[in-house]
Specification:
341 residues; 6-stranded parallel beta sheet; 41% helix
């Protein structure tokens, strides 16, 4: 956003508005953190604000302030549509295309509020009146901090807002280890600690969440891991039966793909997780250095994301999906071997 757009948005938000904030489907720490942080800001301005999530999010994110106020579109569609129809503004956070909001795509395409997009993913759709898009940013939560800077309102950051933004930055940078972590990211994180974010407490609530069933499921995932040394690739599969046998809860497989990527010499890792209720195989892709999984996900897995982290899906069976991966890897063999790690 340039200065003129910021001034225009400030002017529009100077009077009370009905505002809806929407994250992407299957919200992660950055999505929940950015939405709740923005909520905390907008209610201070006196607006009527509703957070509507396309579906539920993991329990290890539900400790954040305001998280209990989300409407779940899957379970409360009628109420949510009524609120959306009355919205003056809709903020789309941590996604840049309506289809990323799952079943909310239809209503978002139908209504005509003023749209504001704040997002760091590649190739945004052109739907927003106010668009703050920056693929170089570590996270949408870092962008929310800069947005508040642009609005001249960092003094309105409460401990709850600081905690939410720190959480999103922490999770989307892999605890500050991904290449998107810049000196600016670290300064923002430090400022959020000064504003009341308790780094030790946040780390504990996000990462010290293992249950016996999740640990057993991780064991299954690691046992299923296959290494393809020729392509510097490793992949993991989890069937619906394996999930069910280990009492799977939403969020239990978060981070599993990173175990495959952590292997010495591996450049590219992918996990395939069966979701029988939707007749799909969900997949997450991770990479090191300059290998671009965003483009790979867009071309082969009906998805996308970032250069080193992306997601997608397959409508094939698990066996066919794995064979598809194996069939496309020769196309990338040269590129994979040229990556310096």
């Amino acid at each position: 956003m340039n200065k003129d757009q910021i001034q225009s948005l400030k002017q529009e938000l100077s009077t009370v508005k009905n505002i809806v904030i929407v994250p992407h489907k299957n919200p992660d720490g950055d999505a929940v953190g950015s939405v709740t942080a923005l909520y905390g800001y907008l209610i201070q301005l006196g607006h009527q604000v509703t957070m509507i999530s396309p579906n539920d999010f993991p329990s290890f994110l539900k400790w954040m302030d305001y998280s209990e106020l989300f409407l779940n579109y899957e379970n409360q569609e009628e109420k949510a549509n009524e609120i959306i129809n009355q919205a003056d503004f809709i903020f789309n956070l941590d996604h840049n295309a309506f289809h990323r909001a799952g079943n909310m795509e239809l209503i978002l395409n139908k209504v005509t509020p003023t749209y504001v997009m704040i997002d760091h993913h590649q190739q945004p759709d052109d739907f927003a009146t106010y668009m703050y898009s920056d693929t170089a940013m570590s996270s949408t939560c870092e962008m929310i901090y800069h947005f508040l800077e642009m609005m001249g309102d960092t003094d309105k950051i409460t401990p709850a807002m600081a905690t939410a933004m720190y959480t999103g930055i922490l999770t989307d940078t892999g605890s500050f280890k991904y290449r998107s972590t810049t000196s600016t990211t670290l300064r923002v994180a430090a400022n959020l600690v000064d504003k009341g974010a308790n780094a030790e407490n946040i780390n504990r609530k996000i990462y010290d969440v293992n249950t016996p069933s999740r640990m057993k499921l991780l064991g299954v995932a690691l046992n299923n891991m296959t290494i393809l040394e020729q392509y510097r690739t490793a992949y993991i599969t989890l069937t619906q039966k394996e999930l069910d046998d280990n009492n799977f809860k939403k969020g239990d497989t978060e981070g599993f793909v990173n175990y495959a990527l952590s292997l010495d010499g591996i450049v590219f890792a992918q996990i395939f997780i069966e979701k029988a209720s939707e007749s799909i195989i969900k997949t997450s892709l991770r990479s090191k250095a300059d290998f671009d999984v965003n483009q790979l996900a867009r071309e082969h897995w009906e998805g996308g994301g970032h250069k080193n982290a992306a997601g997608g899906k397959s409508d094939l069976s698990m066996e066919q999906t794995v064979q598809k991966l194996i069939s496309i890897l020769p196309t990338y063999e040269k590129e994979l071997h040229e990556v310096v790690i």
